Structures are given as structure tokens and as C-alpha cells.
Amino acid sequence: MRSSLLALLSFKTISTTAFVSTSTRRLPLLQHQHSALSNPARGITTHLASSMKELAEKVLVNPKFPPEWPFSKSDFERHDESDDAIFYDQPRLVYHIDDYAVDALTKYYSQHFKEGEDVLDICSSWVSHYPKEWKGGNVVGLGMNEYELSQNKQLTSYHVKDLNKDPTFPYGDESFDKVTCVVSVDYLNQPRAVFDEIARVLRPGGECIISMSNRCFPTKAFRIWLQTNDLEHIFIVGSFFHYSGKFDPAVCEDISPNPGRSDPLFIVKAAKKCIKYQ
Q1: Residue 55: C-alpha distances to residues 27, 48, 72, 200, 234 (Å)
Q2: Which residue in 159, 201, 148 sits closest to 179, CA to CA?
Q3: CA 16, CA 209: separation in Å to the nearest integer?
Q4: Of all helices (H) and strands (E), which one includes residue 124?
Q5: pTM flag (> 0.85)
């Protein structure tokens, strides 16, 4: 019998900053970390914020992933299974994280993007949050709403595609130096196929940068995301890289700009292996 991630989940109820849920599914390897965060004796907000950053960045340090893909089909079901094209038909020219988090993400990109790099932004929209001064090469958006994509001035081209219907990317092998995905990984109901495609289009050593917060359209986020919290989201996305078998171990960086006062922001990223994978 294959191992299941759900077998790792306990009945310990811990409140989360991400979603109010009646679920009691929790990851035991994070229990001691949650307990530390929920202990009022830990002190003032700044101490708590420091603790959260430390815990978030340790989630993917020697993680204990099950030996086989542990998720079930139902883990990626959504409350609203109607055609996503209907939901995303109306343009939304708004930020999906607050201004502080946007600035933090743009600053992060400025520190990690190189001039002339070819970048693919999946689940893209009217803005990719890339630095204005950065001069990329082939900068491509792949998203759901054509008008939104047409308004993204940082893209050199774009394609409209529903990755939940067909998770293949319309690009050649080893076409990009980086792939980004901004607060949208929780909407992808075929993540294993998507992460395989990310690996395919990345050049060896190229990075995939997934940014995550605690905001979402809950009717379109997949079930296991709504039933878990910020630290567990890091673990889940790290597992997507892991089970692909095509990436180096993923790492997490907590770049939340004002913990407790603005949207949290976590980066989970991994580089495509430079050697041939099986």
C-alpha cells in the first residue's frame, strides 16, 4: 500500500492565519513548530514574527516526504467545479496581495533576476510584479484572461490557456531561465503535470519561483489548500517539486514585509537539475 500524505496528518487542532476551517488535518512534523507559535509566553509580536520566519524557512530543511505521490484526486477538487473560463472571463485589474507584499515581491525579483533572462510567468495577469528597471529577454505570460494579459506591459508575448483543462505549455523544451507563479499555485488542480511542464521548459539550472500568501478565491482553490495552513502550504508546494524528480531540493524564504500588519509572503523555489533525470 502506498504511503499517503494524509496518513501524516493528525487530529491536533491549531488555529491558522490562512483560513478558518473546521478541518483537523495537520502535519505532525510541524506540530512542535505550531505549538511554539501558539504559546503566548513567546512574547511580543516581533518575537513571534521572527519565530514564524524561522519556522517557515525550516519546513523544507530535510522534509519527510512519503516515498510515493501521496495526494488523492479529491485533494484537488474545488467548491466550484464550473468552467474556469467563466470565472475568469471578467477582467480583474487589481492586486491580489497588498501593496507591501507587492513591493516585497518586486524587491525579491530585483535581487534574483539577471538582465536578459527569458522568463515565463504562469497564471499571469495584468501585472507580473517584475522590477521596472529589469530588462528581460523573452518575457512570456500564460494566463486565463486575454484583456488582463494585454495590459501587462512587462510581457513581450502572452498566451491564453486553461491549465486545469490542459496542463501542457505551448513552448519548446529548455526555453526559459526562470518560471514564476504569483499567489496562484493553489488554483492548479493538476499540479504534478504542471510541475513536469515547468521542468521541461526550464533550462538546466533554471529556477521556478512560487510566491504564496494567505489570500485566495476559496471556491476555486483546491481542497487540501483550504484545509491546511501557511506552514503546511510550504510543505505541499515543496512536495510538488520533490515528486517531479526533476528539481534540486526546494527551499523556502519568508519575505513577509510587515508580519502581523500586512499580507504574509512566502517564496518556495527550486532549480531544475543540471544532470539528466530519469
Answers
A1: 14, 10, 27, 31, 11
A2: 201
A3: 24
A4: strand 119-124
A5: no
